[in-house]
Amino acid sequence: MDLLSRVIGLLGLLSMVSVVSGIGANWGTQTTHPLPPETVVKLLRENGIQKVKLFDADYGTLNALAKSGIEVMVGIPNDMLSSLASSVKAAERWVSKNVSTHITSNNVNIRYVAVGNEPFLETYNGSYLRTTYPALQNIQSALIKAGLSNQVKVTVPQNADVYESSTGLPSGGDFRTDIHDLMLTIVKFLSDCGSPFTVNIYPFISLYTDSNFPVEYGFFDGNASPINDGGTNYYNMFDANHDTLVHALQKNGFGNLPIIIGEIGWPADGDRNANIEYARRFNQGFMSHISGGKGTPLRPGPIDAYLFSLIDEDAKSIDPGNFERHWGIFTFDGIPKYALNLGTTNSGTLIPARNVHYQERKWCVMRASALLDDAQIAPSVSYACGLADCTSLGYGTSCGNLDAKGNISYAFNSYFQRQDQLDRACKFSNLSTITKTDPSFGNCRFEIMIEPYYGGVEGTLGCLHKSLGLATCLFLILLAIL
Ligand SMILES: *[C@@H]1O[C@H](CO)[C@@H](O)[C@H](O)[C@H]1NC(C)=O
Ligand SMILES: *[C@@H]1O[C@H](CO)[C@@H](O)[C@H](O)[C@H]1NC(C)=O
Ligand SMILES: *[C@@H]1O[C@H](CO)[C@@H](O)[C@H](O)[C@H]1NC(C)=O
Ligand SMILES: *[C@@H]1O[C@H](CO)[C@@H](O)[C@H](O)[C@H]1NC(C)=O
Fold first, then answer.
1. Rounded to an integer, what distance in angstroms lies between the CA atom of residue 90 and that of residue 92?
2. Shortest CA distance to 111 belongs to which of 77, 161, 173, 69?
3. Which residue ranges does the record assign to the X8 domain (predicted)?
4. pLDDT of residue 470
5. Share of the chain above pLDDT 70, in %
6. d(Cα 323, Cα 392) in Å, to the nearest integer?
């Protein structure tokens, strides 16, 4: 009896691990000081993340993924859609250079090509409506011609705004009226290719844009009053949103099309609702929610999902909001932000990146003798913030409790570090000075950047461009060659 229950327990554990191990992560690279791709690949492997979704097809990134076994979704940025839509040859070149070569000579496990990224997002004003489908067709033809169409599937990651519900309930789901026919054309094509529908779902954005959004409904703890849809209860927004899509697909005759959750996550800074506590709660809640493989009310079974995101990106546009630069489960330098059990490591926690090379331990802060009412302060701070990253300042953020002097120092330092600690980057009208004492305070981290990464030929050019000392540069070039 005892043995039996232990065996059953073990089986349960194994099945849970095998379901959970499917978790993927988005790896974006809009950052001023990226970790070397080899370090990120090691980070993925040590954390048991088996699938990665990219937003382009950067050579260095794909090269680092060689022989890792990690499943890769490569991406085509929206600004390439029109050239790929208008030329089969361009699509063939793209597939040859960015897929075939990596698979055949590099052993990169490429499984998907994401054609565009949320191309029908309402804020794009229809810019990609005419090019997405032809680009999708051309890429698929190119994959067929390259003999890869069984192994590599095309898909189009869509924002959840491509569907809506006339009733507010999942059962009212259908594709947005202005793109309804186009969506059906694409869905039929995906179905014919044996490809999945990819959708990004963001309860955080709902909360961010609607202050009346019931907070608990964004999470997975079952604390929200459920929404009753013809006898089916929905306890969280993810399930309801997902099943709105399933209804939209069913209604149009594609009820069995596989769905991939291309992005799901919660930012940890940059807004009063973007904090460590909520981010942990959401991501852990999501992992537990999908770990049993029970799926959603309309789609029981394992859920194929990519967390958004792996690491913070300090060069992302903050037009959508200051939180944009804080989606990572790891900071820009590969430090876990909070305890998160993906079910994929022995320790049950996230493993930090190893061998990260930081610049010197020195910071740029406001000079003790400088006066707060100095007329140069405001322009200096806005100059620094404009070129650096001040998204951790503001109400409810990690550095939101700094005093005025702390605020100013934070801005100066952020600029100084992003200028790789150049002396002249800490000369704000006699208001600033360099210190060796870490000004970090509580949760507010005065960052030091990673040493600039110079890998391969591009890196070497970057080195010359950044006008490092010639000796340093030659040394780095030597390293790159070796
Ligand atoms: C391959 O992908 C990279 C990165 O997205 C892009 O810059 C390049 O133009 C692509 N190559 C071709 C031949 O289209
Ligand atoms: C979309 O249109 C709005 C209003 O006309 C404009 O402010 C915005 O810049 C446009 N966005 C794009 C991506 O063209
Ligand atoms: C800089 O400020 C210090 C005191 O804060 C002052 O003694 C010095 O003259 C100032 N230098 C310039 C160039 O304004
Ligand atoms: C610090 O900066 C933030 C964001 O710019 C601002 O909201 C806050 O009021 C500032 N605090 C002080 C004490 O100046």
1. 5
2. 69
3. 362-446
4. 57
5. 90
6. 9
AA identity, residue 260: I
CA–centroid distance, residue 431 to ligand 3 (Å): 9
Span 229-242, pLDDT tens digits: 999 999 999 999 99
Catalytic residue status for 324: no
Q: Which ligand is nearest to the CA of 411?
A: 4
Q: pLDDT value at position 453?
A: 77
From 118, 313, 324, 447, active-site residue:
118
What tokens appear for 322 in the block?
């200051």
The two structure tokens encoding residue 55? 């937003």
Beta-carbon contacts of residue 231 (< 8 Å; ≥ 6 apart) = none
Question: CB-based contacts of 326: which residues, under 8 Å, 6+ apart?
Answer: 267, 268, 269, 270, 274, 312, 391, 392
Residue nearest ligand 4's atom 1 by CA: 407
Q: Which residues contact 334 (CB under 8 A, 6 or more apart)?
A: 35, 39, 40, 43, 311, 352, 353, 356
The conformation of residue 425, written as its DSSP 8-state character, comes to: G
pLDDT for the residue 304: 97
CA of 96 to the centre of ligand 4 (A): 51
**Are 476 and 463 a contacting pair, CB within 8 Å?**
yes
Read off the pLDDT of residues 354-381 as tens digits, 9 standing for 90 and up: 999 999 999 999 999 999 999 999 999 9
Q: Is 199 in contact with 262 (CB distance < 8 Å)?
A: yes
Q: Which ligand lies nearest the alpha carbon of 61?
A: 1
pLDDT value for 18: 39
Residue 263 bears catalytic tag: yes
Q: Which member of 263, 313, 324, 447 is catalytic? A: 263
Say if ligand 4 is within 6 A of residue 293 CB. Answer: no
**Cα 28 vs. chain centroid, distance in angstroms?**
5
Structure tokens, 36: 């070397």
State how far the Cα of 70 lies from the Cα of 55, in Å rounded to an integer.
Answer: 16
Number of the ligand 3 atom closest to the C-alpha atom of 367:
5
- Least confident range from 7-21, 64-78, 133-147, 390-404: namely 7-21
DSSP states of 427-463 as a string? -STT-EEEESS---BTTB----PBPPP--HHHHHHHH
Note the pTM of the prediction, 2 decimals.
Answer: 0.90
Per DSSP, the three-state class of 62 is: helix
Q: Does the C-beta of 369 come closer than 6 Å to ligand 3?
A: yes
Residue 226 pLDDT more than 70?
yes
Confidence of residue 5 (pLDDT cuts 50, 70, 90): very low
- Identify the bridge partners of residue 434 per DSSP, sorted by sequence position: 364
Contact 252, 175 (CB under 8 A): yes
Residue 334 burial (CB < 10 Å; 0-12/13-18/19+)?
buried
